[in-house]
Task: structure prediction
Amino acid sequence: MSDRLAVLPQYLLPKRALTRFAGWVASGRWGGLTHWIIRDFVARYQVNMAEAANPDTASYPSFNEFFTRALKPGARPLAAADFVCPVDGAISQFGAIEGDQIFQAKGHHYSTTALVGGDAALAAQFVQGHFATIYLSPKDYHRIHMPCDGRLLRMTYVPGDLFSVNPTTARGVPGLFARNERVVCVFDTAHGPLVLTLVGATIVGSMATVWHGVVNPPRRPDVHTWDYAAQNITLKQGDEMGRFLLGSTVVLLFPKDTVRFNPDWAPAGPVCLGQAMGNKPSTTNL
Result:
């Protein structure tokens, strides 16, 4: 079966209703039922609880608190690199932005302007730049961290669809990451502007940032931007910047001549938070 045929049922599913229901279940404190759901999830997806700060699955009062669990101190040391991987997951795609076009999968591209919610001036800063798209599977750690030091400039919520973001769907749904609901975070860094986008998906109950808290729900009908330029919100490399309540994807944008990716990276390859993602082109210590 082709990928396009495989994703056809997603066009028919009541994705928003399913997402609301999943969020309600995941946030509820259902006692023994919650603990059973967590145990089943750990067994089904082979979640490594040994690296969690709290490995006792019975101690989490809700599924969301389990899903956004912290790691043990030192579980993800930071590499000596200008940019470190911001999440645990698998590389969907990465590489050069061709003009303003980001590669999604064979036969599919989408524009930087579409990704950031129609802000052409912001998108123009990444023409001929670079991108990295990383998929977080259910078993992964679901907090998102800073790839480098940065000062927050603004955050934009972009309403959209709630397709799955797994590899099959990425190959089958055109413009997936610029089509789904997302939160676009813009930072100023020593290397130039940086965009870190959190992409929602089916049953992703919500996305949150450390400076705002839960961004959705409520799900706004229109694009909405919060301006933080005057607030001096700064985060260090490796600091937590946000989290997914149920898993999804992050898309990073870098300006031209900013990053040379780790030569060991390859599409579909596993990555961990803190691993070397890349260096400035003038840096040679990867």
Remarks:
- Helices lie at 3-6, 8-12, 15-27, 32-45, 63-67, 112-115, 120-124, 167-172.
- The two ends are 41 Å apart (CA to CA).
